Amino acid sequence: MLHRSKGKALREALIEWLIRICGISAVIFVFAIFFFVFWEGKGLIFNNKVNINTASIEAITKVEGIDESLASKIVSTRSEIKLEKRLTTEWLLKEDLLDEDTFVLIEPFIKAKEFSFWKFLTTQEWYPASESNPRYGVFALIAGTFSVTLLSMLISVPFGLGSALFISEFCSPKLKETLKIIIELLAAIPSVVWGFIGLTIMNQLIMSIFGAQIGINVLNGAIILALMSVPIIVSIGEDALQAVPDSYREAAIGLGVTRWQMVYKVLIPAAKNGLLAAVLLGIGRAIGETMAVLMATGHAVNNPFDGDFPFLHALESVKTLTATIAAELGETARGSDHYQVLFIVGILLFSITFLVNLTADLVVKGIKNK
Amino acid sequence: MSAENPYAITTKNLDLWYGEFQALEKVSLNIKDGIITGLIGPSGCGKTTFLRCLNRVNERYGNVRTEGTINLLGKNIYDPDVSLIELRKSVGMVFQRPNPLPISVYDNIVFGLRVHSPRSELKRSILDDAVEQSLREVMLWDDLKDNLKEKATDLQLEQQQKLCIARLLPLKPEIILMDEPCSALDVGATTAVEELMLTLAGKYTIVIVTHNMAQARRISHECIFMLLGEIVEHDRTEKIFLNPTNQKTSDYIEGRYG
Predict the structure, then answer these.
(1) Which of A172, A247, A257 sits opposite B115 (nearest CB)?
(2) Of the ranges A62-76, A249-263, A345-359, which one carries the lowest mean pLDDT score?
């Protein structure tokens, strides 16, 4: 009987298709997210001349000498003119809606400003909710993210790589299994729990040990983030070390090297791509982490870097890109300037983590080496 | 070694267990200095295990337990004051698959020197001399003298295996252990490595594990036949192959089992 029933063949084909859809769903999701984030932020990216500071009736009414009907007239007139013209206030005088004194008072509320991406990146003033003069400078937020990530990496990279080396090369098989399970448990703790630890335990510790005014600051966030990225660094680093052929170890041992010399002279060079990837993925984790950082860093717009030693002031509170989005997006009106700016922050964050992860991927494939 | 002691390696009642499994049983041997001794026997007879005892590399796996003594270089290597590092410097090992490190030819050869010598002795000229001398000794100098910077793992297998022998030499070993050194090589490469072994014999004591009986016959001066962790027969190679004393040996040689 070389014949197979149609029903069986159909079932087989169906299953195959289901599996195929699961496989490519990741691609679809990534593109959909890309599209959505860029779509929401596109107003400011492609139309960056104006659109910032749309005058609201409520804000204008607060100015002396303007009642609600006048305010709504101003707003509706404004909405009828071309975007470019809103950069000045000439249209307001032409319409002859109000006298000279009121004009001066009302000007900051209705004069549109250019949204410059460069200014967005390089200025430190983040006042998105100001009615008269909102300013969107994310430099301090970038500095906040960068400071917490940098400090957390200074803690987690030596710890993570050290423990990967210990687990892979120095400990007994029994201890190895135990340690791996415990490190996986560390990875399973939800980030809000980490944030909670930062807010309560670490906060107290930092205040009593360092005498800081507030315990929720760069150092606190960095320690919490370090604890969160260590499991990633350990498990990927350990995989990288396990992937080094055992023959290299035997070659080195056969030449009479000590265990540390073997690690230092043979294993680390041989596994360097994988170890670097472990570090980069740890960095990616640290940059993208939100809840724990929101709770542990104090959430105050502040650039902790300056020119004086020690350059990074770890006991100052900061606000990060991720925490800003998480905390503010719920408070903004859909489509408003603030909303759109937060999406641009999202795009920025997305680009950074995407770059870090891409680099990690390329490093793993050894492209850097060839 | 010296004239008064013709033996490079002497073992007495060597027992070895992997966990519960006894892999070597009462192995007592005298391996002569300066010749090639072949270890033959069917798979699992303990010949590789025995070889790996001689520089104690088998202790990498945690569940190994040994009893008895191995005397080489005038000392029992299981004495507590023996330094594994010094032991392995004097007893070099060549593995089944060529395993040069993924660094340059040059760096592979001076790897041992760099690890073991004080910094003051690591002058460029000393290292250069060591590289040239070692490569000449394994007959690779003419092939590789212009490619010393090449990555060793990119060489042909034959060259890789010769390089693995060459990198032992700067450490001035007395004994070289070879664990089926030709099993990954083709016929031509096998011949080349065998010729190399014969030139090295006399200067070094060589112990080689081989599955290839013809090879044992071609290159070894003495042969040890092992079965189930025990020594069955140890004699001159011609004697073992032409006129073995033990029935088990002759059956194995004739290919009745194994």
Answers:
(1) A257
(2) A62-76
Per the structure, the count of domains in chain A is 2
In this predicted structure, the answer to whether residue A57 has a pLDDT above a threshold of 70 is no
What is d(CA B191, CA B206) in angstroms, rounded to the nearest whole number? 17
Q: What's the burial of A168, exposed, middle or buried (CB within 10 Å: 0-12/13-18/19+)?
A: buried
CB pairs under 8 A between A and B: 61
Q: What is the pLDDT of residues A152-170, one digit of tens each?
A: 999 999 999 999 999 998 8
Residues A355 and A265 in one domain: yes
pLDDT score, position B2: 47
Please check whether residue B258 lies inside any domain of the structure. no
Can you give the residue range of the structural domain that contains B141?
7-253
Q: Could you give the 3-state DSSP secondary structure of residue B19?
A: coil
Name the token pair of B141: 């100098």
Q: What is the ipTM of this complex?
A: 0.85
Distance in Å, alpha carbon of A355 to nearest chain B alpha carbon:
29
Token pair, residue B22, equals 């006894």
Closest residue in chain A to residue B167, using alpha carbons only: A255
List the domain range (segments joined by +) for residue A64: 54-112
Q: State the smallest CA–CA distance between residue B98 and chain A in angstroms.
A: 9
Q: Clarify whether residues A320 and A234 are in a common domain.
A: yes
Using an 8 Å CB-CB cutoff, list chain B residues near A247.
95, 97, 99
Taking contacts as CB-CB distances below 8 angstroms, the residues of chain B near A171 are none
d(CA B67, CA B48): 17
Distance from CA of B251 to the nearest CA of A (A): 35
> According to the model, what pLDDT value does residue A173 have?
85
Q: Which residues share a beta bridge with B37?
A: B207, B222
Say if B2 falls within a structural domain.
no
Test B85 with A248 for CB contact under 8 angstroms: no
**A144 and A87, same structural domain?**
no
Distances (CA, A) of B223 to B68, B201, B214, B244: 22, 15, 12, 11
* CATH code where residue B233 lies: 3.40.50.300
Q: Which strand (E) or helix (H) includes residue A328? A: helix A321-328
Listed residue (A23, A40, A26) closest to A337, CA to CA: A40
Same domain, A236 and A106: no
| DSSP tally for chain A: helices H, then strands E | 18, 2
Dihedral angle sign, alpha carbons of residues B172, B178, B184, B190: positive
- pLDDT cut 70: percent of chain B above it: 98
All residues of chain B having their beta carbon less than 8 Å from the beta carbon of residue A172 are: 62
How confident is the model over A288-324, as pLDDT tens digits? 888 888 888 888 888 888 767 777 787 888 888 999 9
| Residues above pLDDT 90, as percent of chain A | 27
For B1, the 3-state DSSP assignment is coil
- Chain B segment 57-96 residues within 8 A of A by beta carbon are 57, 60, 62, 84-89, 92-93, 95
A87 and A208 fall within a common domain? no
Chosen from B97, B115, B169 to mutate, greatest number of chain A CBs within 10 A = B115
Q: Reduced to 3 states, what is the DSSP secondary structure of residue A256?
A: coil
Contact B99 A251 (CB under 8 A): yes
Exposed e or buried b per residue across B65-92, where buried means at least 16 C-beta atoms within 10 angstroms of its C-beta: ebebbbbbeeeebeeeeeeeeebbbbbb
Pairing type for strands B91-94 and B175-179 reads parallel
Residue B82 covered by a domain: yes
CA distance A283 to chain B (A): 28
